[in-house]
Amino acid sequence: MTVRGKQGRRPTLEEVAAKAGVGRGTVSRVINGSPRVSDSTRATVEAAVNELGYVPNRAARALAGNRTDAIALVVPEPETRFFAEPYFSDIVRGVGAALADTEMQLLLTLAGNDRERRRLAQYLTAHRVDGVLLVSVHADDPLPDLLEQLGMPCVISGRRHAAEPLASVDSDNFEGGRSAVNHLISRGRRSIATITGRLDVYGAQRRLDGYREAVAAAGMAPDERLIAPADFTEEGGARAMRELLARCPEVDAVFIASDVMAAGARQVLREAGRRVPDDIAMIGFDDSAVARHMDPPLTSVRQPTEEMGRTMTRVLLQEIAGRSDDRPRIVLPTELVVRDSS
User: Fold this and answer.
1) 66 or 214, greater pLDDT
2) pTM above the 0.70 mark?
3) I want to staple 297 with a disulfide (CB 3.0 to 4.6 A). Which of 42, 87, 173, 339 is the partner?
4) 31 in helix, strand or coil?
5) Which residues are within 8 A (CB) of 323 and not within 5 positions of it... i.e. 6 or more apart?
């Protein structure tokens, strides 16, 4: 129960300090989580806070520290892709879990067209958030450079390129692609195709690099006809699969850079009378619910998407608090989950 201060109003910071027998600054440091307070003093102040029912004025704290107590999760993709791909909801779940014990608010922003990007740029320029999580960044995206110019703390999920200067958290896309193709080779497949994601996304390029590496290491002649670029959508996966069947009817396996694209490719194979895995083995990427619910269930490369969201958030909070001088580039491992499709 909250104990009201004088004349029924809420207790003040000064009253908490008097109750605890410390200075106002000490109370402020305890409330703001400063390490420069002894354990015994912290316990005394926290007991006074609890007894008086003191509630910090978050707005005043934010103003005094030039803080908003909010971060933005920015997805530079259209709404249709955001809601179609389980990847994004898993990232949001991980971010939410990492923020659960903080006072930070999360602002989710989709910026899939020029108008939305302009509005976002204006919002960020006004410093209405303390930091930004950027997900699904394309190579030519100007947002990371804008954030750098603004001095805004930022963490990217997936780098734009190998020399990305900003802090980043990614899965091992290269090893994921390589392990998928090695599995197909171990099953005796010899005409192995791949359907890529958009190649201006660094992660999609690395999955393709892993495919190429595995094919070359097996002594198989590279065949560019077996590589079909797509766009991470179900429609794109279907379109690319039709192209592959037309160009290379002898194809006996396909590594697909997302489960959503694999669902589109699977429908095309069914319409063409190609049995999975008897005629064509399939492997996807993400290990989402889509993979588990396909017929047959889809072998897929699992990336720790929720953990990526949690890790990104932890790194960003450290940057905001000024506890990190470096910009880490964290790569989390992937795992091949074998099911009936291969």
Assistant:
1) 214
2) yes
3) 339
4) helix
5) none
